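User: Here's a chain of 84 residues. Predict its fold as C-alpha cells.
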Amino acid sequence: MTCREFAAFILDYREGNVMPAVRARFEDHLTRCPACVNYLAAYELSVALGRDAFEDEDLSVEQVGVPESLVTGILSALRAARSS
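Assistant: Prediction complete.
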C-alpha cells in the first residue's frame, strides 16, 4: 500500500468499513511508514477536535465572541461555492 492509498482509505479504516485483507495491508503500512503514523494521529486529533467543537451547540454567536458579519460572510461563501 502506498501513502496515497493509505490516505484514501483512512475514513473507511477508522469506521471499520474495509475488508480484512485491506485492513491488514493498511496496518502493515503503518508498521513501516512513520509519516502515515503521524498522518493518522493528526487525523484522529482533527476528528476529536471537530467533535468537541460541536458539544455546545446551544451557544450563540455572541456567546463565543464571533462577529455576526464573519458568520454571514462564511455562509455566503459556502453557498456561492456550492452553486458554482
